[in-house]
UniProtKB/TrEMBL annotation:
Keyword entries, A-Z: ATP-binding, Nucleotide-binding, Transport
Keyword Manganese attached: no
InterPro entries assigned to the protein according to its UniProt record, in alphabetical order: AAA+_ATPase, ABC_transporter-like_ATP-bd, ABC_transporter-like_CS, ABC_transporter_ATP-binding, P-loop_NTPase
Annotated protein name in UniProt: ABC transporter ATP-binding protein
Keyword Transport belongs to the record: yes
One protein family per Pfam: ABC_tran
Molecular function per GO: ATP binding; ATP hydrolysis activity
Coiled-coil region list: none
Gene3D superfamilies xrefs: P-loop containing nucleotide triphosphate hydrolases (3.40.50.300)
Residue ranges occupied by any ABC transporter domain in the UniProt entry: 14-243
Amino acid sequence: MTQPAPDTPATPALAISGLAKTYASGVVALHAVDLTVARGEIFALLGPNGAGKTTLINAVCGIVTPSGGSAHALGHDTRTDYRSARRLIGLVPQELHTDAFETVLATVSFSRKLFGRSRDDAFIEKLLRDLTLWDKRDAKIMELSGGMKRRVMIAKALSHEPELLFLDEPTAGVDVDLRRDMWEMVRGLRERGVTIVLTTHYIEEAEEMADRVGVIAKGRLIIVEETRTLMKKLGRKTLTLNLAQPLGAIPEALANWNLALAGDGHELVYEFDTQAEATGVPSLLRAMSDLDIGFKDLNTKQSSLEDIFVDLVHESAAEKHP
């Protein structure tokens, strides 16, 4: 990959090429990952525990030294031009790391100075108010609840006004109010041009907020796709027919549709590919009519991103271990 030119509108917010990480123990955490994230995009990275999500973020942010490949933040090499790159990056890590004896205001203000930003009391106040921390500004970190400590971590990450923000499991284990505030904050940041890369176990967050989704498993980026396109391309629908009379078994004449019985024989379930040329639904209904199998009601359900995610991880595992 050609090195992106810094500070031009066409420069991607994040450009990763062949990024790999093998630990001294021999464990391969990342297998030559390639990824480009555009400016102003919200990109969600999904994967099970141990998939490599945090390692990827840490390699970009300079916390982990990659074994190979490169990463550029708005055109700045994160290794050879570390200071410039890191000044543009904000990171909210999974683990809570703050000075327990400092006050909220002091620790957030210090983080801003750490990145060479000039003092801006008005900005810090607005930031703390947006995160419902202003009333706690004089409280020591050790006195705060877990949710409030998480808010402080977010404030620290945003204190120097980064252009690229990494959120590593930002709402894991937090209350509903903070999760809602986080979603609103992320949308507001995107409106101001901030690029956001988040990892999450909450599939609904990716489905609700992300422009694109990447699925990573065992250090390999399986797929990167626009969220809606991924749903459309890989999503499946389930048709459930509520039968007028229960069936004890599926008739031989319906064997071609790969049906399943549910609800003690009162429901006939058919899963079909929404992208197939022929879904098989019209022919199924005709075949049921020919067999005098009536139904009182029917409903369809679209596969969620979680369903797709689980399928992709299982398919990847099957390919690696046939």
